[in-house]
Specification:
single chain, 153 residues, Aminopeptidase, 22% helix, globular
């Protein structure tokens, strides 16, 4: 495994540069210069400075329409802190579903065993349809409206 450091953030090179989800949807690793600036702003209070992560831009027919961010919590566990589809005219067509379904075999191939995420309460049914289960809460209660979920790969 190779990890490249960029401005106190570690980029995970274990995953491929490009993932073909289907004939229309492709994921490409995001530009690191832009990414470093963005993630420092978005993740300062949430993540440690030396987290190992990858961000893929989501393309449909060569047009970027969103992003998916992936953190490695351990050598066997990944977390998706966000999956974002830009503009409402791109939503509701199953793109998010296809992205998650397409990533699962890739994650398995690279030896990951579990995938976790924090879902907004109204998105829990979406993730349950993909096989995620609600995790038991331990320690401090989660923010109201946020549900921890896990998928065994």
């Amino acid at each position: 495994m190779i990890i490249k450091r960029f401005s106190n953030l570690c980029f995970h090179d274990k995953l491929p540069e490009e993932i073909k989800i289907n004939s229309k949807i492709t994921l490409k690793k995001a530009d690191r210069h832009f990414l470093g600036k963005l993630l420092r702003k978005l993740s300062k209070s949430v993540r440690k400075e030396q987290d190992i992560f990858t961000v893929f831009d989501i393309y449909v027919d060569e047009s970027q329409i969103g992003d998916v961010q992936i953190y490695e919590n351990s050598p066997e566990e990944l977390q998706i802190p966000f999956l974002w589809i830009d503009r409402s005219d791109n939503r509701g067509f199953g793109i998010g579903t296809e992205v998650i379904k397409g990533l699962i075999p890739v994650f398995k191939k690279y030896g990951y065993k579990t995938l976790t995420l924090e879902a907004l309460k109204n998105r829990v049914p979406f993730y349950k349809r993909l096989g995620f289960k609600e995790m038991n809460k331990t320690g401090k209660e989660k923010e109201k409206g946020i549900v921890d979920m896990v998928l065994t790969l």
